[in-house]
Amino acid sequence: MNVRGITALAVTLSAGLLPACGSAPSQDGGDPSLESAHMSRHSVEASELEAALVDGDLERAKLPAAWLSGHEGMNGLGPETDVFVTQMREAAGGLFASTSLESAAVEMGRMGMACGACHLATGTELTFEWEDYAPSSMELQPHMARHAWAVDRLWEGLSGPSDEAWKMGARVLSGDPLDREHTTAEAGRRYRAEAWDQLVHSLAAEAEDAGPAEKGEFYSQVLSACNACHALVRGQS
């Protein structure tokens, strides 16, 4: 199965597992349904952004990054959230302006941290629901489906914030890495693809017990390792 096929699968998983986002009561008596719709749009754009970065498609990431950095804000959140909204916009803008996948992954981690901090400041409770993850396998398709599931949980854990989602994602992603014989990388690239996959799993094993301030960096490093491996498989690195 090629990486484009894997990515299509990852996008399908992400779209089917978007979190149900609850909102704290608006401080100015705003319409809760509008607030919920606004935050759901955030979730959709962030999911598309994540899928693009995992795939290593920086250009595809530009559109959701542009929306997140420049869309009309939501009234009623209160002045204490201004700093987090600004941080989220700045990170999305930095991602839009990124010229490398590595710097884009760093900005995605910053954005997730800002989202999580804003949710905490407003008392917003997010409820996450997901299907069971794919079983551990050395076959490429289920292995990548497992990765996609786990990276989605890491994002929910970071932006929720949700310790349960974060730990679940890290635990699933820290399983046995894919050996080189099961990658689709060309000969001469398989050792590097195997090394990137091993790095993803090693980072996940460390990330399970990461403190709140460390999660953004772990998430960024996982994204970078994912897209570096995918670039190898496509013969772009």
Mind explaining what this structure looks like?
This protein is mainly α and 237 residues long. Helices cover 67% and strands 2% of the residues. The chain contains nine helices and two strands. Helix 5 (101-122) runs antiparallel to helix 9 (215-234). It starts with a helix and ends with a helix. The model is unreliable at 1-29 (pLDDT under 50).
Radius of gyration equals: 17 Å
> What percentage of residues falls in helices of 4 or more residues?
55-70%
The whole-number mean of residue pLDDT values reads 80
Shape: globular
Strand order, sheet with most strands: 1-2
- Determine the strand fraction and express it as a percent band: under 5%
Q: How far is the N terminus from the C terminus? A: 19 Å
Low-confidence stretches: 1-29
Note the total helix count.
9
Give the beta-strand count: 2
What is the N-to-C order of secondary-structure elements (H for helix, E for strand)? HEHHHHEHHHH
Largest sheet: 2 strands, antiparallel
Q: Based on helices, strands and strand pairing, what is the structural class?
A: mainly alpha
